[in-house]
Amino acid sequence: MQITGAELFVKSLQKENVDVLFAYPGGQAIDLFNALYGQDGIEMILPRHEQALVHAADGYARSTGKVGVCLVTSGPGATNLVTGIATANYDSVPLVCFTGQVPTSLIGNDAFQEVDTVGITRSITKYTVTVRDREDLAMTIKKAFYIARSGKPGVVVVDLPKDIQQAYGSDYYPDTIEIRSYKPNTSVHSRQVKKAIDILHDAKRPVFLIGGGVNIARAGAEMTKLAEKTGIPVVTTIMGKGALPTDHELYIGNLGIHGSYAANSAISNCDVLLSIGTRFNDRITGKVGEFAKNAKIIHVDIDPASISRNIVVDVPIVADAKNAINALLEKAEKLPIEDWMKQINEWKQSYPLVMKNTHMTPQIIIQKINETFKEAVITTDVGQNQLWATQFLELNGSKQMLTSGGLGTMGYGFPAALGAKIGNPEKDVIVITGDGGMQMNIQEMATAVVYELPVIICIMNNGYLGNVRQWQEMFFNKRYSSTCMRHRKSCPSPCSTPGNNCPEYTPDFVRLAESYGAKGIRVEKVEDIVPALLSAKKNSKSPTVIEFIIEREENVLPIVPPGSPLSDMIMESKE
Amino acid sequence: MEMKKRWISIFVENEVGVLARISGLFSGKSYNLNSLTVGTTEDQSISRMTISLTSDEQTFEQVKKQLNRSIEVIKVVDFTDIAIHMKELMFTKVFNCTQHDMTEIFRICKVFDVRAIDYNSTTVLLESIQTETRNDDLIRLLSNSFPNRIEIVRGGSVAIEAISITDR
User: Fold this and answer.
1) Residue B52 belongs to what H/E stretch?
2) Which domain holds residue B129?
């Protein structure tokens, strides 16, 4: 049967079992939207901005394990996706983004709403392609879904010119696809596993370092078994957090420039480091030459390009995390490392992660979130709110955290939560964000209200872009350059100290929530935290904004200063 | 680490945008690209690129891995340790030649195995199909002998694995 490209597009989504489409219409995508009209089976979500749209698809994908699917128009529709595409691709989130395009006859003419979408997205995607022939459409879409979800997952952009959408052609959609230039390797090389096991069994002070790859492979249960079988303690990156329940006795904590003392010390003092699914990003290594300096390093990663790039490793294993963990599980044995565990527990007890409890600290707020919600997806924004969340959130199999780890995109948390809620209607979905990040996609309050998505938005309001302010305080002599969100024209300039005379914060988040038809609560005292959370939890039809007024100059500690090794942690603020 | 000139050959899908993908990888990741040539193979759906870059060993490993993980790249061949045939096409024009210059140029042609392929009373066009190093040598010689009177266009090298020959 002959059908239009737009009709084939809809059919392809159905064949790929797409149940939610995050879509914002426009002139060069109107045929696709027309074909989608009236069909059931694919729920259409209309956010208020394309950047939020792609973050929502990202949150949906991370929380469900399915491919997130976006549809936008050409030109500004496509360029507004860019930040979200880079965010998702950096954290290996499977997305397929369809963009409208001007007709092939107009490409290159500087036509209205024409941009070179493929050129713009080339360096931030796994694959990006313009369909130039109606005959290639089905195969290209099949290829897009396969590439996005296989191997190291990532983002694929499919650019669809208007004439391709309109052209008639075959209705055939393939069930499988072979790509000669793309054969991701996921199986484990048994000789490398044996080498790894031999090194591991000789270790006196071994540590597992777990990255986001373990969570992407959904291998948390296997990882927990491996830790328990060997008795080897576990350190995580922020992307790997939760792979092992955070209250597990073998869990030490996060490492890195805001890692815990015990985790960073364990890494600095270990003799064997078995790392799975992390690329040794500069945020976790500190000064590279000093990182796990005396350790033999075994590195499991699905991406050969991640191995021996930042840190030279002794035994590389290119494989899917779950396959590798299962292979290690078969051969691994219990290690006699009581002394090492004793040392780690001493570090943990001597230098716990703790904020001074004289006021309503982020730690207390997050602890109350831990206690109030049992089955939940928690998204964070970027900055201090994210770092506190990664320090204090308790995660396990029924609680998941979504955060923009690689790109560090402010504005991610709230829209990602909407996608997570759409994918997990039965779970509580909580956003931990800051007053800065919340305002980067605040227009999505409307989306949350109209789709009746009762997400719980916890804004840690300190009236600053707090993370940059902290750096300015610690490393730039308190020169608070462009970080105060309460700064107004009338303020003295420069200003380095908040005080009683600071202008009112704008917007009033409570009234803003109410104006959207959502619930707004302001919390200024410790005893009001739990009632606010419970009230939000009960509000099942609309989102709730809880604005926590926190200390203005609260810091994230410990911190490893830029350029320093992990062992050089600053533990406390100067008074 | 030692910075060294290195050669690789890659087989890629003959598709729109692949050249941009590969060259963009080099610029985006700050790899030091010297030359890149591309053309179709006996299979019209496959193009082959010959790439020269200058890098240390660790970066070179990373370049090969990054090329390999590009969806459109079918195969990466490292020419570092294998026998190959490699040639570069270079055209050179020499202007304002006297009779004496012409005699000199034709002598150079003979010694350097270069052909004069076009000509008038004052200008001559040379075609040189040599290794890159020999073309460099030729440029040096011609610039010294005919300063500010030469125009050069070079094609970048193409290479293929050797059959029986063992040196490069």
Assistant:
1) strand B46-55
2) 85-161
Instruction: Specify the CATH number for the domain of residue A449.
Output: 3.40.50.970
Q: Identify the residue whose tokens are 């030692």.
A: B2
- The residue behind tokens 């989102």 is A543
Q: What is the pLDDT of residues A360-379, one digit of tens each?
A: 999 999 999 999 999 999 99
**B73-78 and A43-45: which strand pairing?**
unpaired
Does A108 contact chain B (CB < 8 Å)?
no
CB contact under 8 A, A304 and B65: yes
What is the count of structural domains for chain B?
2
Is residue B123 a part of any domain in this protein?
yes
Taking an 8 Å cut-off on Cβ atoms, the answer to whether A305 and B12 are in contact is: no
Same domain for A516 and A404: yes
The answer to whether the Cβ–Cβ distance between B66 and A305 falls below 8 Å is: yes
Q: What is the DSSP letter of A570?
A: B
Please name the residue of chain A whose CA is at the shortest distance from the CA of residue B13.
A181
Whole-complex ipTM: 0.92
Pair A398, A468 in one domain: yes
- Interface contact A118, partner B, CB < 8 A: yes
Task: Look up the domain containing A314 and give its range.
Answer: 190-350
Amino acid identity at A37: Y
Q: Does the pLDDT value for residue A356 go beyond 90?
A: no
Place of tokens 């002998």: B145
What does the pLDDT look like over A80-101, one tens digit per residue? 999 999 999 999 999 999 999 9
Domain boundary residue, one of B26, B61, B78: B78
Residues A309, B21: C-beta atoms closer than 8 Å: no
Tokens coding B152: 């050069």
Beta carbons of A122 and B74 less than 8 Å apart? no
**Is residue B73 less than 8 Å (CB to CB) from chain A?**
yes
Residue B168 in any domain: the answer is: no
In chain A, which among 121-140 make CB contacts under 8 A with chain B? 122-123, 126-127, 129-130, 132
pLDDT number for residue A572: 85
